[in-house]
Write a structure and sequence with these properties.
globular; 32 strands; Beta-galactosidase, Chain A, domain 5; alpha+beta; eight-stranded antiparallel beta sheet; 853 residues; eight-stranded mixed beta sheet; 21 helices; Glycoside_hydrolase_63
Amino acid sequence: MASAMRDRRGAKAWDSGEDSNPSSAPRRSSRRPPRPPKRKEPCCCKCSKRTAAFWLVFVAALVCVVLAGLFVYGKQWIAVAPKPRALTPFPGKLVSDLPQFQGKHRERMFWGTYRSTLYLGIRARTPKSLLAGLMWLGVKDNRYSLRHTCEEGDKLTRYAWVHHDGATYGRQEIVDQGLGITTSFLKHQDSESGYGGDWAVRVQVVEKMRPKEREQIKTPNRQVSLFFYIADEGGSALQISSDTFGDGRFAAGTANEIGGWELHIKGQENTSVSFVGLSRQHTHNLTELVWQVLATQAQTHSRIELPNSAEKSSNIGVIQITGVAPLSFDAVFVSGTQKHNVGAGERVMKMSGSDLTKKLSEREEMFEKRFQSTFKLQDKVKGEKEIEVGRVALSNLLGSIGYFYGQSLIAIPPEYQDSKATGEDVWKYWPAALYTAVPSRSFFPRGFLWDEGFHQLLVSRWDRKMSKEIIAHWFDLLNIDGWIPREQILGDEARSKVPDQFVKQHTSNANPPALFMAIHKLATAYEDEKALGITNEEDEVFFERLYPRLEAWFQWFNTSQTGKVPSSYYWHGRNAQTKRELNPTTLMSGLDDYPRASHPTDDERHLDLRCWMALAAKSLAKIASIVGAPNEVYASTAAQLTNLELLNKLHYDAESGRYYDYGLHTEAVKLQQRNFVDPQTGYMQSEMERVVLKPPVLGWVPHYGYNSLFPMLMDILPLDSLMFENQLQLLHNESNLWTNFGLRSLATTSSLYMERNTEHDAPYWRGPVWMNINYLVLSALDRCSKVEGQHSSRCNEMYSRLRANLIRNVVKRYHESGYLWEQYDNANKGKGKGSHPFTGWTSLILLIMGDLY
């Protein structure tokens, strides 16, 4: 506003022909004779024209002033205009700000392998962090390429964390075209360390080829090029040294919280070393930046090596180590180097060479003891092959935990479409951090709301505080309405892995409240300990801070996802207009293409969502009791949602004995090719389009599969009821879901079993075996087997058979392929399918091995 006022004052002075400072105006000469007086003339047309011109200029100037004022006022109004509710955080203290997640805990967890999308990436849990990572030169499609981000297209034989404790230690094994690469990560707190302590990475490369593979390699002593880098995400300049090996440091600098720091690279002889320093604003595209440097070097010097130069104010330093396998190097990061004004040489020695070897061996032993005491697999599985898979499942889940910071992009709701008139295409959520596990480092390296509920079933068994902190971060993303974006794509690094059309989150879309499973387990553990006289004050404080957010989340579901009929729910947001999908998807349910009503309407009733809400109500009643809040409303809601008579009225088909969705549905649909002329090119084109052969009617959606199991999974069916007995019979029928590899997701009798949903989308939840639902089924069978009754022995038998089938197949496929998979193909001998490595909810195989539910 002040600058605008100055502009207006300046314009006024200029228009009047006066200087803004009157004292500086030139005076007339006193020696100049006075002018004769002007003779008055009668008013003429010239005078009228001058008067009109004056008023025209005056009005124009006035309009300009008014418009300028409106512009400035408008900018101020926009700045102070109230935020849309969707962008307003929940009005309460952040759960992640609790003291139990600060202090020593925060410092201990400060550094980690928190860059989930990379083969090896290290950062701190702070928005603008130092970033470190590993690259190496590989071959893709007979051309050199840089390995950096986890890509299925790299076709690595395997890569997996074989040990990882989620906090201070990890060891990963990678096999890439006959090369075995081992990366080890270790943190250490020294008395002279800065905040967060010191850390070291060891990279070892050996040949790992079968005899036939060795024969195919034309140059058996092929060179290996490794790249290690450090970058300042905030743009601060690094000091990059040309003395890049031996005892010299490679890079140094200062950073918030940790103070001065140094990175030392210590390696072996008979290797060549080169480096580059780059100054760039963005760090999410480091692969491309390094590749561009190498490509330029190859063109100008015929060498694929870095140029040994650094740009002014470089905030990225990359060192290249080239040699013949076997080779190795240690990268040692020491913090707080300015604190005592002494060098870091002694600390570097303690974190490299034989000292590092000893420390890594000690941490491995500690991990193994903790793993054995936590899961006790020795007497529960056949042998070391099974234990190895369990160890890898845990390590990969913990090793994939990431720290993200940024703003979710929100699709503008229909009621706010006027926002687009101002040029806004999306809204931005508030800047926030998220500490979370991810389903897959290669394909889904970001947070997914319903997946996280399953992840925390395992994480909480390993480290309760870690699990609580992850849950805290998720609920800190809750807005004032009680909505949480279901997919968290925070920051440029995460966004670079997602196509633009999938980035926007919709405020009307839900996701299964699966975090209530983990929260319910934590609450039950607290109650069990309290019954033994053990009071965990940190848990009490955690539940007290979390409880209002749980209430808001629950209330959001009850206001946004309810159906027409009382006590019914449906997933809002299905596309009723699409003609390209055989059955409109329900992405918000998590069961993407699982068959629902063929014609989406607000008459729908979705069985799985109603059962999720029953779990949520039960959990809230339990936590309300813990924190001393009234729980009658939630207990009453839970009683209503678990009322068998009401459930059967809404979802039970007495004729088949199955639970179904309800909606406007017809089975008479198919995908049919449609030919048309493209108006832009004039060429004939074709596409698959849905054709409805028979009008839909309101009724059951007769597709038996995972969705039908939810009353059993959420412990709603009384164990002595006819409905529970029916579910056991249906479950054990091989024409339905039972296979030798686990329970398939859709019965073979379904009209959409293994059917494509579009010409491009293969069946997803229409047949393959998924670990998360199989785990819930085993949990239900385990509960039944431990309660004396008419079905306990049958449940025990089914439990044992299903558990054995799952373990046998997952272990077999891991040792065959080197990976844990997203799903397992019941139609192809149980082979792994989908993204890999997928150590999100597939890691539940460890809890299955340990009989832990």
